[in-house]
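Collaborator request log, item 7. Partner lab (contact: R.S.) asked for a structural prediction of GNAT family N-acetyltransferase to inform their binding assays.
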Amino acid sequence: MVKDWRIIAYEKKYALSTVSFWRESKEVAIGQKEIHNMTEHIYFLNHMLTKQFRVDLVVLDETPIGMIAYNESEINQLYVHIAYQGLGIGGALLEHAKTHSCGRLRLYTFEVNKKAQQFYEGKGFKKIAFNSDNEEGLPAIEYEWVRCLSRLFS
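Returned to partner:
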């Protein structure tokens, strides 16, 4: 089990390696090639995503192996390098976002991504809506997590 990873704030020097594993992970998850080329994807990360969301990385020996883009109420992206999935990295990123949340988080995942559905449901997220309003044109599920008030008082 890999233990020497850490969560850091995203820096542009990690753009290429982050987008590379992000694209591969997404393709494996949904069975569809990324619709944007690498240059467009890097631009999206550096100039759009980072303007609207906090982006944090999991790095192992200075190599990004996980990423999350979030704000106090939404997770926009969460991907773990396919070679490091199932090791608790995605869960650590999710917990990281929960601690920086307002006590409620929403996110979308594709309906074809059964692994992600199982992951989020196992972390306390509940299905709240269905839609297909995304660039990929795939059916998606909206999830929501709400901090349990009883845990706050125990």
